[in-house]
Amino acid sequence: MSQFTLGWEEWLALPGLGLPAIHAKVDTGARTSALHAFAIEPFGPADKPMVRFAIHPDPHDPELEIICSAPLKDRREVTSSNGETELRFVIETEVAMGGRSWPIEVTLTDRGSMAYRMLLGRSALAEDMVVTPSQSFCQPELSFGEYRDMPRHKRHRRALRLAVLTREPRNYSTRRLIEAAEARGHTMEVIDTTRCYMNIHAVGGEVHYDGRRLPHYDAVIPRIGASITNYGTAVVRQFESMGTYCLAGSEGITVSRDKLHAHQVLARHRIGTPTTAFARSPKDSGNVISLVGGAPLVLKLLESTQGKGVVLAETQKAAESVISAFQGLKADFLVQNFVKEAAGEDIRCLVVGGKVVAAMRRRGQPDEFRSNLHQGGTAEYVRISKEERDTAQRAARAMKLDAAGVDLLRGQDGPKVLEVNSSPGLEGIEAVSKKDIAGLIIQHIEGKVAPKAPRRSRTAPRKG
Ligand code: ADP
After folding, report:
1. Sign of the CA dihedral 161, 167, 169, 174?
2. Which of 372, 409, 418, 421 to mutate to test the pocket of ligand 1 (most atoms within 8 A of CB)?
């Protein structure tokens, strides 16, 4: 193997920490490598500890501040060249230099204004590397200009402690959210909603889990199944009262789950829905049928999900007998005008942070008016109109949901919203759109909980 020569100072990158250029001193007198960081703080769950810290990569530009995070490997006593012994956090990360990259251990230390933000010690050097102390920059040079081109959210990214509330730790959506959070340097814990227990205080409150009090999370992603809406929203409310940002608020979940309530809210916001009516007493069944314009019509059990409680009655007779069957079972239902022109298709729009980020068309099996994937439907990419986009965004906002799956039908006279889902599945929509929707969700959360950008004073000259 040919020799890889290093001078006593070199430029390197630490891509895992989001640091594209660091001016480092190579010091074979030191064993360990060190990064001069500040605001060093461990965080994350005990079985996957992390550490976050800030660094000013350019010693001459105190305004350039990067927030980094990395898995915490160890805590170790290190004696520095001035003889002081200090207990330091140790991380492992990739270093890139001269077209090569390799993993190194780095200790974190806050020693004020060191001219070199990094010290590369001998344990970070591979066998074929030779240090020539009389030379500088034997490897290609970089510059702090690299940071000027970085988007602002990368420069000021703070590592977050996140949790997803779900009873399905291994399903696609949960796994993707964990992956996306970790890829961006955050931690994500999975909490089984039904195992949370609470005590209610006037101020704050707490959530307990498995015998311990849960820590403060920067944000919680509720993915509450329909069978536990009540308890689930109580847990979400508790997090809200503790000041935690919840991607789906308890109110949004509650309203969107109740088909009657949801239709009333959508109507109040003048969002198109199929003509909908409901009644409880058998005496009124004839009247509700005529309210929606007679057969054919669609009957839906209020607690229906995945299309299971949705029936198409093609004639008045069929409608009357289904209604009397539902009433006999004391089941609550609604009656809806059949949007025939939708022809067994609906459109799922995924809204994140108030914007439609992806859409797909779902088509039912032949002779099936329900397009649910659970009923054997298929999904494909679809271009949506401005009106459809606008309707989906307004529906999510009306439901007070920052992330939602909005289902709509293409009616003759415009889009008709069927339902707004507070924990939309990610598998179908990511496959169809080929987009990193989980990543967009995490990015939205970062924007919600991150500290706002410091305002530059108008008189100060801009650097760079
Ligand atoms: P669920 O919540 O059980 O999925 P939906 O209201 O979403 O119930 O209905 C399931 C499917 O039935 C929809 O995706 C759509 O394809 C079809 N559908 C529902 N309501 C209507 C309607 N009024 N007109 C035409 N098709 C409908």
Report:
1. negative
2. 418
